[in-house]
Amino acid sequence: MEKIIIIGVSGAGKSVLSREIAKKLQLPVYPLDAFYHLPGGKTLDRAIFITKQEEVMATDRWLIDGNYAGTLPMRLAQADTVIWLDFPAKRNIFRIIKRSMQFLQDKSSRPDMPDHFQEKMFDKDYMKFLKFVWTFNQKVRPYIVTALESRPNTVKLITLKNRRQVRDFLESL
């Protein structure tokens, strides 16, 4: 496992898992959110976003954390392992709200986000994000399933369906 992607619904713990795996395997971590989110609520141009991912994947060892379904096939083509946190999306709403409250209170950015990122709660964008998470398994999951079925046969798929499986997996490393 030297070229790993971690995907799954928001709030499932992708970033926490990424940091744990990276520490155990001595891999550099590249959170896609840190590339994508720019100051002032803007987002990175798609072509530049793709280029940044290609630059990471051109290196010998990496762990890329994040979904971004539109670029998932190109990451699958370069990875040797994909870890899919295939959790019920609706359970993660509470985790997301709790996480937002924590980082709002601390007045700090999450480790997987750029330094300029400011956590917000219950504005229009936040509510849109919660709706995205609520409907993730109906709208995004089918695309992920199709992409994973089309991955090269050299790419190992590890599907974890709950926190206990995540803990067991980490212990097995």
Characterization of this structure:
There is one protein chain. The chain is an alpha/beta fold and 173 residues long. It contains nine helices and five strands, in the order βαβααβαβααααβα. The protein has a five-stranded parallel beta sheet, sandwiched between helices. The chain is globular. The mean pLDDT is 88.
Mass-distribution shape: globular
Straight-line N-to-C gap = 10 Å
Low-confidence stretches: none
Strand content: 5-15%
Determine the structural class based on helices, strands and strand pairing. Answer: alpha/beta
For the residues shown, what is the average pLDDT?
Answer: 88
Helix content: 40-55%
What is the overall number of helices?
Answer: 9
The H-and-E topology, N to C, reads as EHEHHEHEHHHHEH
Strand order within the widest sheet?
Answer: 2-3-1-4-5
The whole-angstrom Rg is 16 Å
Number of strands: 5
How would you classify the quaternary structure? single chain
Q: Biggest sheet: strands, sense, closure?
A: 5 strands, parallel
Structure keywords:
alpha/beta, five-stranded parallel β-sheet, 49% helix
Topology readout:
Elements lengths: L2 E6 L5 H12 L3 E3 H5 L9 H12 L4 E4 L6 H7 L2 E5 L6 H15 L17 H11 L1 H4 L1 H9 L6 E5 L2 H10 L1
Parallel strand pairs: 1-3, 1-4, 2-3, 4-5
Short characterization:
The chain is α/β, with parallel strands linked by helices and 173 residues long.
